[in-house]
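Incident log, support desk, overnight shift.

02:14 A customer reports that sequence design results differ from what the structure should imply. Their input is reproduced verbatim below. On-call engineer (initials T.W.) acknowledged and began investigating.
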């Protein structure tokens, strides 16, 4: 999955910056996702592709809003499924002496 930054999304749908965020506010575009915990944000490319395809197909605003709502719901399900294989943060106890990292630490000395 590729994350598209604002400028790329604007290029793909031909909107200005203010129009892009107006579409988000009106439920016609998914909410951007924070990237790497920074101020940067972006949209999953497949979401933009689906919304653009709906527009090309002549779908109404209400149809696009329903699609956006489905995409938001799918984010929760999809990403929870992806994260289910990762341990909870409280279950992680890595130290500098952890054997998994020992060879890397020795090489850095």
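02:41 Re-run completed on a clean worker. Output:
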């Amino acid at each position: 999955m590729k994350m598209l930054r604002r400028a790329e999304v604007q290029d793909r749908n031909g909107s200005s910056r203010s129009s892009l965020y107006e579409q988000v506010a009106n439920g016609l575009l998914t909410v951007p996702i924070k990237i790497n915990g920074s101020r940067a944000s972006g949209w999953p490319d497949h979401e933009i592709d689906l919304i653009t395809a709906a527009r090309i197909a002549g779908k109404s605003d209400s149809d696009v809003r329903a699609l956006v709502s489905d995409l938001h719901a799918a984010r929760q399900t999809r990403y929870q499924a992806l994260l289910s294989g990762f341990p909870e943060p409280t279950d992680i106890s890595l130290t500098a002496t952890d054997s998994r990292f020992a060879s890397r630490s020795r090489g850095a000395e």
